Protein 1
Amino acid sequence: MSLSANPPSLDRSNLREWLEVQAAALGFDDLRITDTHLGPASDRLNQWLAQGRHGHMEYMQRHADLRSNPELLVPGTVRVICVSLNYLPCDTNFDIEWQRLEDPTQAIVSMYARGRDYHKVLRNRMQEFAKLVEEKIGVFGYRVFTDSAPLMEVELARKAGLGWRGKHTLLLNRESGSTFFLGEILIDVPLPIDSEIEEHCGVCTSCIDVCPTQAITAPYQLDARRCISYLTIENPEAIPVEFRKAMGNRVYGCDDCQLICPWNKFAKRTEFPDFARRHDLGQATLLQLWSWTEAEFEHRHEGSAIRRIGYQCWRRNLAVAMGNALTSLEVNDIDQQAIRSVLGDALPQAHTLVAEHIEWALRA
């Protein structure tokens, strides 16, 4: 998409203040502006891809040139408006999250995915934001993104000053921790840009130490092929055997590096009803989620980010977690028998991918 010519001369300092007011009115927690120059980040991306650390995420390599240069993605872009939106529901309690992780019968779904699909929620608000800007300044060139295109959004947000890159590679903010979504509007208006902010991780390595699969191979270095979020969401194939035990009861994503991060003591809660948990995803047991038919999976995850992994990968992940429950001394005999029974009943008709994981689980 080619952007239009720049609008007439504007009082850009006043416009900037107006942008912040409008962003806040739409529920965004912060707004910052940066240019399109990614510098060394592009080289780091190419090195990461060359090492194969992206796993099955071929789309990252296929569009690496676009990721490295927003001006190639949307010709005419000179600035990127970066926004953040907190997603933790008001009733989120990190102590309870840890307790559920320690109970092998519980099904752990990453906190960000328990409500409505953030892509839709955030994109709609950003589109509304862009329309307000257009009403204010006249027609201008822009495109809206939220984790929906080959764009290095964390790096752009870091450059813009929304936060700093934590050692787990997520963006961190002193007021919000890391539990927020990011969105971008690529524009052809040369607004004043913001400064980067200082890092505040210090000598802390909590996120590295807690990672169940040692996916954070060094500070600021992530091997996606080892990451439970990748394994349960992006990976379309069998879960590698060497990581199945470490998955524990995590059936969609993993929050350990965020739960342990000291900065998330300040993680803000949101009033957005869209991000409230649905279908008891913050309380459900493995047996409860296993009982869902494919039709129930499709219906209950309508409007959810979880739906895109499909029913078979959902069952694959649950089967691994149930196998781990079968090896736990903390699971009582009744639950053990129930798990073995439902897995055994499902095996004869199971999809090939799921059957492999059921068989693994039953050998526990």
Protein 2
Amino acid sequence: MDKYDNQNPFWLGLMIGNSRLHWAKFEDLKLLETWNTEYSYFENYQDNFLDIVPIRLASVVPKQTKLWQQYPNVEVITLEQIPLKNLYSTLGIDRALAVLGAGTQLGFPVLVIDAGTALTFTGCDRDQSLVGGAILPGLGLQFSALANKTAALPQMSKPQHLPQRWAIETQEAIHSGTVYTLLAGIRDFIEAWCQDFPESQIVLTGGDAHILITYLQEHFPSVYTQILEIPDVIFWGILVLRQKQSQNPKKNNQPDSNG
């Protein structure tokens, strides 16, 4: 990453997920690049650019949020800043930013499926009002749960291609049960959403998005053609907030009463 100073237009977006840190580099209102790091990457980090560069941070991990608040130019994004209607207090900031970014860029209504540690569905209608969503364990978490909570089932990696449905050995059976059930659930949610919002955009994002889109292309091609795979929708949402801040700097520069 480049060095920064107070005279340049660069800033960072940071989304703290359940498994990794997700980064984006911006120049003013332009997204330049994205990358991911492990939590441990910054444990012995010596470069002081984090004390200089502005960082707009969203997090679903409170412990990590506190660690990053030690840096002087970190602005924590809260749910109260999200310009969508009907949000509830425990909605994940990652889900809110993703549906805001996707809807602003692609148009409302929109359904965002985030295939991360958890698999989430989040939908907004044409009036930019949250309709609702759902949360279930993601692909990797389902494999881990079987290994951790049973005596004899092994830890499994994600298959790169659709597994054989009717398996004749344990590992393939785990792959089959997990993958096909997950795909059926995704299809069901998409079909239910499209019944109510047939003109909706449907976005798939998150760390497992690409492997799931590969499965869907082979198993449910009609569903596959409805989906846009977009890795950066959360950062699109952060950019929406930055644009609003630049349009009304006095209001957004008021001290945060929450500290």
